[in-house]
Amino acid sequence: MTLDPDTLDFAKGGGLIPVVVQDADTLQVLTLAYMDRAALDETIASGEATFFSRSRGGRWRKGETSGNRQTVVTITPDCDRDALVLAVRPMGPACHLNTTSCFGDADAPGLGRIARLEQTIAERAAADPATSWTARLLAEGPKRVAQKVGEEGVETALAGAAGPDEEVCSEAADLIYHLLVLLRSRNLVFQNVLDVLAQRAEAAKH
Fold first, then answer.
1. Do residues 165 and 159 make contact, with C-beta atoms less than 8 angstroms apart?
2. What pLDDT does residue 1 have?
3. Fewest CB within a 10 Å sphere: which of 7, 9, 88, 174?
């Protein structure tokens, strides 16, 4: 975290800066909080999200009571440097109502479902292969997982050529799941794929 707090405009908000807290992996917006300079300094020093509570009138570190701490990945100011986006890896629900986000009760909507599935696959990797298909695939190694990706790719292509919409979506879901397992078996994550796409998009500009 290389942010220089001296470059931020705390005065505009009467000493406080609004902070949008976002899951670093799923990109889901978790909550809106506030920081004063002391809370930001503590966040940078500790690596854990620390805010200023307007209702309590003082600093509080997320998860002090609940244990649902938030490890900070990046801190990004907006163009006017009077607001922040805090990308975090949460250790539990962000909301006091015990939901993932303070904005509705949905968990990782949209493309965030990919990252959530990756997290589930990582957890299942330690399960008993006798009871977990994911653990069994990973135990059999990348070649076996790659074979499954090939099979699912063919099934998706056949459904796409002649099947109903429901079948196409179902087969595509199977393909995506097995692709994520393959990446896991190679110690890769979907972000590595997105990085390649970003590089290609940048190259296409020139």
1. no
2. 58
3. 7
The Cα–Cα gap between 88 and 24 comes to 5
Find the helix packing angle between 165-185 and 112-124, rounded to 10°.
50
pLDDT on residue 58:
86
Distance from C-alpha of 87 to C-alpha of 113, rounded to nearest angstrom: 17
Whole-number Å distance between alpha carbons of 101 and 28: 8
Cross-strand pairs, 84? 19, 77
41 in Cβ contact with 62 (< 8 Å): no
Model pLDDT, residue 44: 95
Contact 61, 71 (CB under 8 A): no
Q: What are the distances in angstroms from CA 8 to CA 21, 84, 123, 182?
A: 17, 9, 39, 43
Span between the terminal Cα atoms of the chain, in Å: 31
> What pLDDT, on the 0 to 100 scale, is given for residue 196?
97
pLDDT < 70: residue spans in the chain: 1
Cα–Cα distance for residue pair 2/29, rounded to 1 Å: 22
Q: Give the residue from 201, 200, 206, 180 showing the smallest Cα distance to 191.
A: 180
Q: List the strands of the sheet with 84-90, edge to edge.
A: 29-35, 17-23, 84-90, 70-77
Read off the pTM: 0.83
